[in-house]
Each structure stands twice: as C-alpha cells, then as structure tokens.
Amino acid sequence: MSQHTLLFLFGLLASATQLCAVDALIVNGLRVGFYGKTCPVAESVISDIVNNEIAMDRGISPGLIRLFFHDCFITGCDASILLDVSPAGDVPEKESSANGFTLVGLRTIDLAKSTLEGMCPGTVSCADILAFAARDAAVAAGLPRYDVVAGRRDGMRSNMDDLPGNFPVPGHHVPRLTELFNQRGLSQEDLVLLSGAHSIGGAHCFMFANRIYNFSKNADIDPTLDPNYAKWLRQRCPPRKPDDDPEQAPKVKFDAQTGEKLDVAYYSELLARRGLLTSDNALIEDPQTKAMVEAFARNEALWQQKFAQAMQKVGMLDVLIGEGKGQVRKQCRLVNEQEKAIEQQQPQQEEQQPPQEEEEQQQQQPQPHLPWFLQRRRPRPQHRPRVPFRRHPVADLVNGFFRGFH
What we know:
mainly alpha; Peroxidase, domain 1; two-stranded antiparallel ribbon; 47% helix; disordered C terminus
C-alpha cells in the first residue's frame, strides 16, 4: 500500500472520528425512538394528525416548518413560541410582529398534544411534538422521510424582546443573514438549504411591496426582478392604503411553479430573477451563496438529503434535556403551574353561576375532545381565554415592516 493511500485512509478515519465526536456532543441525550417504551404510538399519532390536517389545508405544511424554525432560532427548541402567557409576565414570542397573526399550525399542535395526553399523560413534550410535526409536514410536501431525535423538554420562558436583532427578516442581505445563522451554530450552507423551504408557502404583499412600488429615486420597481414577474406581482398586489388591514392583505406563493411541493424549483426561480423577498433574491446576489443555489437547482436528491440534515441540526439548538430542566407541559399554550391555577379557579366560577345559566352554557359547549380518528366532525380546540397584552413600541418599530414573514 502506497504512502499516499495510507495518508488518504488516515485522513478519512480522522474525519470520521471527528464527525462522530461532534454528533455525540450535539445530540447529548436526544435520540431516535425516545418514546419507544413510554409512548410507542407518539410518532405515528402525530403523523396521522398532521397528514389529516394538511389534507384539509395545504397551508399547514409550510406553517409547521416555519413554526418549528421560529421556535428553535430563538432560545432553542423549547416550544416557547407556543405559549400564550409568559410566567414572568413578559409579552410572549408569538405576539412579536415577526409572528403574530402569520403563525399557522398552532391548532395542529394543540390537537396532537391533547390526543397524546389522552393516551400517554405527561409524557410527550410540546417541543418534541413540534419537531415531529415539522418533519411530517416536510414529508407530506414531498421530502423523503428522515429520523428525528427526541427527548426535548418544554421551556418556561417566552419573551418577544428576544427577537429584534436576533432573528432574520425579509429585508436582510447575505452578510447579515450569515451572521445570524453563525450565531446559532448554523452555517451559510444551512442558510441556503433552509431557505429552500420557501418552495412551499407564501408571503403577504406588504412583505415585498417595496420591490414593486417606489423602490428608489431612479426606479419604481427593483431592477433585479424579472420585469414580467414584477408586472404579475403588481396585478396581484395593488398599492397599499393607510387604512389597509394587514391580516386581509393578499398573499403570493414563493414558488409560482410548484407552490405545494417541497422541491428545488425555488432555486430555479431565484436564478430566473423571480425571488419574492429581498432575502430570497439576496442569495443570487452573493457569489458564494449563488454557487450553492446553482448546485441545488441541478441536484434535487442532494438538496433533499442536505435539507433534512439541516432540519435535524436546527432541532438540536439549545434543547432542554433531563429532569430539572424545563417540564413536559400538559397543554402547549400554558406552563403547568398556570394550567393548575386555572383549573383551581374553575370550580369557584362554576359555583357562582346560576343553575339555569350553567345549564345553557353546558348545552353550548362542545363534547369532550376525542382523538381525531374517533371523530366524524372534529370541533375546534377550546383554548383558555387569552390575557390582553400591552403594545410593545420598540419591537414594533424594529420588526413592524416585516410582519408576515412566510
């Protein structure tokens, strides 16, 4: 055996050893099949529910992937984005202008959680449900199935102030996006890979209106946009009026070719100058990221494999593992202490209600929640009354323009 061959084999062995060490360090307690003994039906139940919800609304697929990414990118994969109320009294993440009314898939997570609580009480965390659901959403949109490690516990903190300055927004360019991803232990390649999730879903018109109206002093339309595409966007997105309701704003698909299939058409659209957001188009303006875009546009199998790996990597960000760290919530919108306090208040409120009023309310309330496969017509989950939150001018100032990302 030649000296060059020995050096080559030694290099491969060293790389493999380093990779195993890194993997062991990153996972550090998370594992595939975590609920194999404590709740063996967990993954199959979540998958069935996700597929059933997507069959009724294709928008659930991009919504769940986005929900997972938004949760993990801020304070790690701890289901903090699902909290309606923060124990510390902070305005929670979901009320941020980067989230708000644009979050899709919350009902699906509630449904999965309530079903599993009926089967395996206090066992499957909301953070793990979200990770499984994001995988199942990607698979339903065309990605080959990949393994998801589990063992995360749910956080007890959620604060919208964590987002400004720490979260990518549609107006960012590659240097800033790369910086934010690097801060979370993600590479520039991860940035390009995960941007491929924009092969499904869409954005509200006000998210890219600056590119098709009053772009600059010298150009009404962003010159980097394909002119025919810009004209098409203008037909679907009339100029905004001051009194327009953001929640009623029209929405446009990221990928006009295959908007419901998770594939590499998104990258082809970018190269054809049909990227919807500034942050999408930025990937072909930078030489390094453009080379990656071109490579993925040519090789769908490579992108699928690497996208799954990037999703696995995201799912390991700052997780809470083991007893004494976080908790397994009984419902995903409240920490257990808040849930218990509300349950204790309910009997007192019921005793104060007149008998006739109580009987009328019981008639109006839906039947107790059943697993989806036992229902013919599933009622919407009944959530706890939400506490009104104060306006937050600083966060609104920073993120306000970028409401509706995705």
